[in-house]
Amino acid sequence: MGAVHSRGDVASLESSSPSAGRLSSGLVPSGPARVAGATDLGFVTEIVTLAFANDPVWGRAFPADPGNTTRRDIWRAYLRALMRFPWTWLTAGGEATSVWVPPSEVEMTPGQAETFEAIVVDRLGPAADDVRALLGRFDAAHPADEPHYYLSLLGTHPAHRGRGIGMSLLADNLARIDAERMPAYLESTNPDNDVRYERVGFRRIGVFEGYVPGSIITTMWRPAAR
Fold this sequence. Notes:
The chain has 226 residues and is of the alpha+beta class. It contains eight helices and eight strands, in the order βαβαααββααβαβαββ. Strands 1, 2, 3, 4, 5, 6, 7 and 8 form an eight-stranded mixed sheet that branches. Helix 7 (165-179) links the parallel strand 5 and strand 6. The longest helix is centred in the middle third of the chain and has 15 residues, at 110-124.
């Protein structure tokens, strides 16, 4: 997440074959996933806040406080901007959410970016400078030479983890993207998740430093279906 480009973070291999083959890892679309609307903002915010509470990057960048107020306020401001696109998805039972930026779009308008930054500064104080620097590294790593779908966030509510729901939602999203013959991009903030993305067609294309010195964020690209 960030103020100019979206962040392909997920809480919870290059292929030239068509989409059906690329999703042959046992993951299948989870069913009637739906596009989240404006009235779902609070619900999506809650899933993301809880899903990323212990993330190696965002769990440290947005520190815990009573009631997770700081985290919730920052995520809500960010999600409000991205949910103007019809590419925030919820599983049928509301267990997981995915947040995408469509090709050739930016995640925030100038006004939204200004509002978001003001909230970050207000909630984090001096630590906002470190978050600003982190977002700059995300921006620098973001591919700019080919239009693509950008997975900003994929999160599963902690009560529903371990059942493959988040990855099934991703499979559903990728089937839609494959139908458009478009590539996809994400940044993985948790190394444990990298292999999961490789199983659905992403390949590692680079790394950069996370919030804590020595931590690694992996950039991943999934070619367009043929």
